[in-house]
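Q: My labmate handed me this sequence with no annotations at all. I'd like to see what the chain might look like in three dimensions before we decide whether it's worth expressing. Could you predict it?
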Amino acid sequence: MQYPNLDSVNVEGAPAQAVKRDGQAGKSRTLWGDALKRLKKNKLAMFAIVWILLIVVIAVTADLWVPQTLGDPTASDTATMASSSRLAPSLEHPFGTDTLGRDVLSRVIYGARISLTVGIVATGISTAIGLVMGALAAYYGGIWDAIIMRLADTFLAFPYTLFVIAMIAVMGDGIQNVFIAIGILGWPSIARVFRSAILSVKESDYIDAARSMGASDIRIIARHIFPNSVASIVVYATMNIGGAILTEAALSFLGLGVIPPDPSWGTLIQEGQKFLQTEPWLMILPGLAILTTVLAFTLLGDGLRDALDVKMKDA
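A: Here is what I predict for the chain of 315 residues:
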């Protein structure tokens, strides 16, 4: 009588090789790998990614084709301005022309550069400050937590937009000051989110083990706490990019952001509102650019939130 090879059979009767393969597959799974799989299944998030990439590519490559096909977005021909002013959308000018005869589409494309730059840079500044402040407050606690959280409460006590306007009024107009104002005033919310995430993992067993082995505070934060808390920050920062774009547009609309003749979506809306009844495309088309871009970052952030949720199960 031949007996089965016991090394190849487990207690459940399944081949050990299959169990080994399943074990290896389970070990290879990571939070970010599973999140990417779930993100690919989210059609709205994938559409948002495609739209954002399209806007970025068009804005980055604008110098290669926009001036030759649509015209300089900042120059105006005074000799032909009367005949080319406020033309309706056509094949030659898909978004029409403004009061100075400049192509609106070219100004919207170059305005995308400013909006995306403000969104990314300002969010980067606020995220960097928020991460440091949130880490200090959550990890050390005590007096550090009290001081930082009360400082955050002070910032949050003022209306955000009015606070930004006040800072711009003090520092002066210019895109650099817009970066600074939006970036500095956006850190309290990031700090609160990161603080909450750190507090949820601070007392974990692996943190105690690292501390008992003599790991420094910086190493524990950088190698253990930060990687396990960064998911919520990625989601929040993605949504904050859309908020920063909207804030910059509001400042430019009020004349406190980008200095003309440089194009900005907010400036285009401000210039076009005077002709809303007669030439509505001057205001509506830049407004659609803001709407679709901010909505794309919001949908992407919402998709990342669902994808990074460890409680989600693969369908």
